[in-house]
Amino acid sequence: MKKASILLFATLGLIGETKAQMKFGIQAGLNESKYTEKESMNGVVLSPDFKYKTGFRVGVVADFELKKNLSLQPSISYVTNGTKFTFGTGTDAVSLDMNVNSIEVPINLNYKMKHWFIGAGPYMAFNMSGKGTVSSPDTSYTKSLSFGTDSTNSLRKLDIGLGANVGYQFDNGIFLKVHLQTSLLNLAPKNPTVDGVTVTERNTNFGFTAGYYFKTKKRAPESPVKKP
User: Fold this and answer.
1) Is 204 in contact with 33 (CB distance < 8 Å)?
2) What domains can be seen in the chain, in order of their start residue?
3) Across all residues in the chain, what is the average pLDDT?
4) Is it the case that residue 64 has pLDDT exceeding 60?
5) Which of 74, 87, 104, 215 is most exposed by smallest CB count within 10 Å?
6) pLDDT, greater one: 88 or 115
7) How buried is 157 (Cβ within 10 angstroms: 0-12 exposed, 13-18 middle, 19+ buried)?
């Protein structure tokens, strides 16, 4: 969380030096996510069929006008990610339901066309807590997830990836957008090779967000310097 705050404030400070037009707002929406996993051994690759799980995101957002049609949009949000997986059928079926709570800091460079905008950029996310539930027709148990680089952890704590978004902003400050994000890092903990099997795990999510920019006073144009 401390790293997220440092990254966000560093961005604000850098943009502040440009004397850009600034807007601040709030946003919330739905999040569809899943963790994709690949297990490889001796050239054979297995990819379990994980399913998307519905979550939500809520946070604050800023928009800094760099040029007439170009702006930088950092935000910080609380996001619930997760995934679902079922193996087998009938009385032999075993299902996994996983929830991961994260703090996410994306920074998008947006191009604006009147009310429409489209953009992309990197994001950094910090996995804070989570739970995994394994169930069968006869029994079920839930375990808290752990995050770190040790082989005993469930996932890595840090996730870095790329995202893209497209949206529409109304004159009254309300905006709507859709997003798509995917991990660049392998989220499997350190030493992911066990019994000759190498594990690669990444997060993919997309969703819909609505938000509102608070009204701010426009900067007055600087007076020209008079020559003596």
Assistant:
1) yes
2) 2-86+99-127+156-183+203-213 (2.40.160.20)
3) 84
4) yes
5) 215
6) 115
7) middle
